[in-house]
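User: structure tokens for this one?
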Amino acid sequence: MPDDSTILSAVGAPSGGGGAGHADLVSLFVKAHWIVQGVMCLLALMLLVCIYVSVFKGFYLMRARSESNNFADAFWRSRDIEQIYKQAQQMRNGPLAQMFLAGYTELAKLASDERLKDDREGNLANIERALRKAQMVETTKLESMVPFLATTGASAPFIGLFGTVMGILFTFQVFEKGTTLDIVAPKISEALFATAVGLVAAIPAVIAYNFFVRRFKVLRAEMESFEHDYLNIIKRHFLH
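Assistant:
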């Protein structure tokens, strides 16, 4: 039965202290093939952009919800439309406030045009179009940059896998030249590290994307409900 020294010599015993260096993440990156390094740099950049988008849209969403809630309270509490208009002008990030301003502006145009005062259905249709347009603008503002999170979540694992495949291919080329296992194994680890980086970029991106999508659905439902309520108020009090 062969002793330990024979087994170590067969696989190529690592020199002292070399294994610890390969376990270091920085060492895995530095010693990787340049294609694998490029893949990991791309994934790191995508991760940084996702972090920026998540933080920026998170604060924007908080402001939008806060201002919309404050405006909704003021809208239903106050009976003075001019006062509501002044408050809405101060809430630039609130979707409901911006919809109100669009409807109010269109209503003011119709009221100032003597030729349109008797066209109740046409006036109502114009106001409805203004509200829909404002809703579309606000929805676009809310959802801007968020699709990048979905793109990262869907593509980052495959980009990392591409880096891994390329790294393993280069490792096999070295292996065919008779290199011992203690040289090949770290190179495979370097290649696999690209897949790990891809997952690190993808997982938070998917979580953030799903979080924002759920919140956007709530805000869109609130905007649609506000549109119906606003039109009903205009029908009862302004368009006779």
